[in-house]
Amino acid sequence: MAKIATTAFVCQSCGEVHSKWSGKCNGCGEWNTLVEEVTGGVPGGLAAPKKGTKRSSKVEFVALNDTAEAPARIVMGVDELDRVFGGGIVPSSATLIGGDPGIGKSTLLLQVAARLARNGLKTVYVSGEEAAPQIQDRAKRLKVAESPVQLATETDLRKIITALKAAEPDFVVIDSIQTLWSDSLEAAPGSVSQVRACAQELTRWAKKSGAAVVLVGHVTKEGNIAGPRVVEHMVDAVFYFEGERGHQFRILRAVKNRFGPTDEIGIFEMHQYGLAPAKEPSALFLSSDGESEGGAAVFAAMEGSRPVLAEVQALVAKSAYGTPRRSVVGWDSSRLAMLLAVLEARCGITLAGMDVYLSVAGGYRIMEPAGDLSAAAALLTSLSANPAPERSVFFGEVALSGAVRPVARMEQRLKEAERLGFERAFVPEGAPTAVDGLTVTPIKRLIDLVELLAPDALNA
């Protein structure tokens, strides 16, 4: 007996299903996101099984100590990309890559597909957003048009799966998952039901065929991958492509990775011939203007196993309006509010009537609490108009009590600063002090940093 299709109201933001329409989604709280969709069809499949078809009910079990060797990773030949993936992409895996429009997702994946094809792997690139001449023109611009990549422009999932089964590729790019549609559902392409069904079917095909599948996903205005969160649970790895359009640097950040670390990043530079791995990632986010004015401090960050140095810039000025402004770029605004409160309550620095602007240079984003001390140093030097000591770095977590707490991998941060020519380091107590060529100054409490960088502010 055929399953009767019914209708339901599905939130296009989180995927929550409602029996009736309402203005606000009960799952995520978003307004005007409920859309009526037909449900009750075959979930996640391309078609219902035909009558009389025998389906095997046998489930095969294997032992945990099975001696079968895992398939070797596919090395993509791009150091930054292989680092983020954990040494290369795993066969039979499904990867989801999201990012803002125009950030370079299609460019990077086309370059990767061309490189793998030149190395002898059967590679397929399926685009649902662009016509074949557009992709071919981009390939000519990237100097990869001669690579034996099989190109297709299609949005019908049934046709795509049929073509992939016939081609038997090793590496597949789907650009993008929001453009595909399955005829087993009556929902529109890009809807929650279609995205979930198409992602599930492609992931299932990847597991059975042994091919590595990369899905490109759109992002919302909040920066999250559009569609239901269950799609991120289906795939094996989720990566976000970050960067500012005004900057040439792009960061590929791992959010989920079943086969590797989730705290690694890959740093790329945008050139006229596409994206290339950064030659000196640790120094990309440092200012090169050579100015010695106050309001800047260098932060020694850690991204996975890689130390990265970034410049934190701050501007403190008297407010011209009744309500002082707090503007943050590249850092957590709530963490800035906490740091300002600690400066006022524990150090006596009054910033209530001041506009505070804080930015991380180069489009970098500080994701760890170790950036507290460098942000405090930038604020204090801007307030006092005195620059920080030349060739100095800062890192450390500031507690609500005003204490500066140790952070992870302090020795690696110091060695990287010394390698790049820095001479002084302001760090929490307990950090290594015997680093050749580097003068290490322990900071026990935030008031100690104030006395070093902005003593006049204490008397104000």
From TrEMBL:
SMART domains linked to this entry: AAA (SM00382)
Positions that bind ATP: G99, D100, P101, G102, I103, G104, K105, S106
Domain of life: Bacteria
GO terms for biological process, alphabetical: recombinational repair
Region listing for Lon-protease-like, in residue ranges: 355-460
A Pfam family matched in the record: AAA_25
Keywords: ATP-binding, DNA damage, DNA repair, DNA-binding, Hydrolase, Metal-binding, Nucleotide-binding, Stress response, Zinc, Zinc-finger
GO terms, molecular function: ATP binding; ATP-dependent DNA damage sensor activity; damaged DNA binding; hydrolase activity; zinc ion binding
Residue ranges of domain RecA family profile in the record: 70-219
Keyword Secreted among UniProt keywords: no
InterPro entries, sorted: AAA+_ATPase (IPR003593), DNA_repair_RadA (IPR004504), P-loop_NTPase (IPR027417), RecA_ATP-bd (IPR020588), Ribosomal_Su5_D2-typ_SF (IPR020568), Ribsml_uS5_D2-typ_fold_subgr (IPR014721), Rubredoxin_2 (IPR041166)
GO cellular component annotations of the record: cytosol
Gene3D superfamilies for this protein: 3.30.230.10, P-loop containing nucleotide triphosphate hydrolases (3.40.50.300)
Motif residue range(s): RadA KNRFG motif: 256-260
Family as reported in the entry's similarity comment: Belongs to the RecA family. RadA subfamily.
Function in brief: Plays a role in repairing double-strand DNA breaks, probably involving stabilizing or processing branched DNA or blocked replication forks. DNA-dependent ATPase involved in processing of recombination intermediates, plays a role in repairing DNA breaks. Stimulates the branch migration of RecA-mediated strand transfer reactions, allowing the 3' invading strand to extend heteroduplex DNA faster. Binds ssDNA in the presence of ADP but not other nucleotides, has ATPase activity that is stimulated by ssDNA and various branched DNA structures, but inhibited by SSB. Does not have RecA's homology-searching function.
Note on domains (UniProt): The middle region has homology to RecA with ATPase motifs including the RadA KNRFG motif, while the C-terminus is homologous to Lon protease.
Protein name: DNA repair protein RadA
Species of provenance: Hyphomonas adhaerens MHS-3
Gene name for this UniProt entry: radA
